[in-house]
Amino acid sequence: MGKTLKDQMGQVIVPKTVKTPPPAVILVNPQLGQNIGGAVRAMLNFGLSELRLVAPRDGWPNPAAVSMAAGALNVLENAKVYETTEDAVADLTYLMAATARRRELEVPVVGSNDAGAQFRAWQGAGHKTGILFGPEKAGLTNEDVVLADAILTYPINPAFQSLNLAQAVGVFSYIWASSEGAAPPAVFQENISVPARREDLVRMMEHFEVELKNAGFFYPEQKSALMKRNIRAPFIRAQMTEQEVRTMRGMIKALVQGRGQKKVK
Amino acid sequence: MGKTLKDQMGQVIVPKTVKTPPPAVILVNPQLGQNIGGAVRAMLNFGLSELRLVAPRDGWPNPAAVSMAAGALNVLENAKVYETTEDAVADLTYLMAATARRRELEVPVVGSNDAGAQFRAWQGAGHKTGILFGPEKAGLTNEDVVLADAILTYPINPAFQSLNLAQAVGVFSYIWASSEGAAPPAVFQENISVPARREDLVRMMEHFEVELKNAGFFYPEQKSALMKRNIRAPFIRAQMTEQEVRTMRGMIKALVQGRGQKKVK
């Protein structure tokens, strides 16, 4: 439909006028149907309508969600259910995780006053975006958070941090709506015209991890989860393009095959 | 306690360093205890702790509020209950009403991106502030709204405007917290050093209305509520000082007594 442009290097640029949807809200392992319903109502209040659920505890559909959704049933009915967080974010190119700062992860933090402009910059450039919210009690796992380009933090009272899930989604939805017309963020990298989809990044990292495992890299075994998170973070943070992901996979392959050849005694 | 200053006219100025509390949240005729509890939890999440209730439908205390308040029981227990909105705002000097724009009322509208800075400017100048939220179904009456200096609007989806009460309070609480350090609003009238408390304004207007009624001004009778609202709005909007309120009452009295003298045939 939309016209495509090419920059001086011949790379396709997605025109700024392409209409892409607002961020998808992704609830990871939500526990209470009433929170899903409350979240959906607040989303639609502020113009968001794409809900994704990762393995909701009480199955799906959920009558408790329906009763709290009030007039926002459309959003509930159109919700998509996934088995894993990776599946739920596969088609996205920009992803935030709503959670407290994690000192143990090298994931950049975006304050709530800047998050809306950040999303609008990506949306305006034609990209699909989303935001992760964790389950009520435990919150997002580190494995989920390292899938995100940035952590979104709220200016929360340190003495009482336990935010209800529906409220957390409501505040984000407000942040989105109130950022209409906001100036684009200074750090937005406009020149990343074809960022990799999250799925391609995950496949690349899995490829890397499999080969590292074969090479005996993950030692001791009990530290392998931590090591994998630390490996993933910089690749997400780099906001790699499709081409860079392909190149990286070629590099991994080359190292493995080269090593194999050298091993021949 | 705090030192007082005087300006060139000898008027007392409240020093900027006086520590005044954040805005009070005033729920007018709330219906569901769970919404009161949800509101309280979100308030404390974002650093607000003063709750006032005007004639809650199911009485007070309310067990349904307790179960939704999670760890914010202190805020619930310290809530004050009032019979009327006027009583609940009597000691405040700056008041907003969270509601949609009312074309029939001449009450200025403050957008949600500016509301936090506005509250902080008043708070920083040593004034007590508050915000009104209406009951779940009907929302605030026009009589409540004309008590406010400004209407706070959210950037709501026109196709789905029905915001849950606890969510509405949660979004306001976030707006408050996220405005820390915001630049003061351009329109803030720093020179109003001793604004009248809402109670004094209400008494002045009641005085005015009684005398107008005696004078046969409210005709036809069925339009008197509308006429009273229209009379009140500009006095609130003027952000009158204590002295101006006293002067105004003297003016009303003078007119009435003067008229009485002329009536002597």
Q: Which features characterize this protein?
A:
homodimer; 265 residues; alpha/beta; Alpha/beta knot; 2 domains; seven-stranded parallel sheet; two-stranded antiparallel sheet; 10 helices; globular
Could you explain the architecture of this structure?
The structure is a homodimer of 265-residue chains. Chain A is α/β, with parallel strands linked by helices and 265 residues long. Helices cover 42% and strands 12% of the residues of chain A. Chain A is built from 10 helices and 9 strands. In chain A, strand 3 (24-28), helix 1 (33-45) and strand 4 (51-54) form a beta-alpha-beta unit. The longest helix of chain A has 22 residues, at 242-263. The radius of gyration of chain A is 20 Å and the shape is globular. The model of chain A is unreliable at 1-18 (pLDDT under 50). The A-B interface holds A 38, 41-42, 44-47, 70-72, 112-113, 154-157, 160-164, 166-167, 170-171, 174-175, 177-178, 180 and B 38, 41-42, 44-47, 70-72, 112-113, 154-157, 160-164, 166-167, 170-171, 174-175, 177-178, 180.
